[in-house]
Amino acid sequence: MNDPPVAIDLFCGAGGFTQGLKNAGYEVCWAIDSDAAAVEAYQENHNHEVLPEDIRGTEPETDGPDIEPGELDLIAGGPPCPSFSMIGRSKLDSLEDRGASEDERNLLYRHFLRYVAYFEPRAFVMENVPGLLRDTAIVETGVIQQLLPVDPADESAEKRVGQEVPVPDIILDEMRSLGYHADWQRVDAADYGVPQHRERVFFIGVRDNDELPDLSRWATHREPRSDEETKMRVRSEPGAFTQTPQTSLTKEEALPPFEADRNPGEPYLTVADAILDLPPVSPDGEMPPVQATSYTLPPVSPYQQWLRDVPRDETWDEQELRNHSCRWHNHLDLSIYKLLGHGVGWNIGEVSQELQPYRDDVFRDKYKKQNPAKPASTILAHIQKDGHMFIHPTEARSLTVREAARLQSFRDRYWLPESRTKAYRLVGNAVPPRLGEAVGVAIRKGVLEET
């Protein structure tokens, strides 16, 4: 039996990408992140080294994993680039005397490429937000050589010095200067079995003699073709709703396996598929309570059963439920939540400014109730500030951490901090494990097993 491909995870966060790669058959042996809460969550969920450092102060040859250059199969990661995000750009531009272009975190991807340059993996994958595709930058003399070794005879990286060019072109020039065939692909997580519309860009690089995988070929889900296909899937196996111990569904039983050119695929997983089995909670703390620590219903959909990850020979009512508590809401928020229909968002200009919680020169629409018959809207780290964009479809409140995690495809036994603020941020910033798995399978089957 062949050994599994070996990977490392840079800017690992809470470990969503790592979990996806593990599900895809990789051995992830090392990770790095500077966020203390992310490192704690990562360590709780993964049994290998994670370096709690700012990557800018590290050297791959001394601080990285004990692996020789050329022996690593994959480097994965998602360097934060706040100005590439619409919310990130608005927030930075609103700060006095500071614009998004001045934020040094925009250059963190070069530190990702430093590790690529040193370890020379067979492939790499770098995740980022679609806003990056709209950004431009002035190419400065020598800027590429600041961090990366570049062949002096190769003028491609410096050919547009002084010109304003698309940021993706600059990044691809730098990747190709390291000897990789590289390009970017834009995908929606809902196409891969995540119950959430979440568009992301993946830069993938492979050695020049390898062919880049086409991520679209590995999609498992699609738009529903009828109202019937939007209904929550209900478990139908014998004894599905009995109290007797039973083995949890495997991933393959709950979700279709990743196969190239699947046709026609399954209808999108929805908010109902993901969260409507969880017990009700409320901000007032009476009935329902503020927090629920146990399940009151069995899992209704196959996806819910897979998410619960009940240990073998246990019943669902014996399992502890974590991170399912309701944040406090004032009466104005609760009243507005009740007014909204499923999937409705109020936009600036449509209602009085008195009903808007945000500045109208920074944010555009910010009250949104999730539609149970569709995938959720994109779960963002901003959920740590308030939940106006993430209102529960049937209860007058915002989503709990556990509900947000499920919409990101984290299973219920995946450890997250008890602090809601920290947990919301980690969940909102994470690569959905199911999406990470799709990317990992595409690279493993399309590149690593073909050479």
From TrEMBL:
One Pfam family cited in the UniProt record for this chain: DNA_methylase
Annotated keywords: Methyltransferase, S-adenosyl-L-methionine, Transferase
Record's compositionally biased regions (Basic and acidic residues): 221-236
Example of a GO biological process term: negative regulation of gene expression via chromosomal CpG island methylation
Region Disordered: start-end pairs: 221-257
Gene Ontology MF annotations: DNA (cytosine-5-)-methyltransferase activity; DNA binding
Domain of life: Archaea
Top EC class of this enzyme: transferase
The protein's Enzyme Commission number: 2.1.1.37
InterPro entries named among the record's database cross-references: C5-Methyltransferase, C5_DNA_meth_AS, C5_MeTfrase, C5_meth_CS, SAM-dependent_MTases_sf
Membership in a protein family: Belongs to the class I-like SAM-binding methyltransferase superfamily. C5-methyltransferase family.
Protein name per the record: DNA (cytosine-5-)-methyltransferase
Origin species: Halomarina oriensis
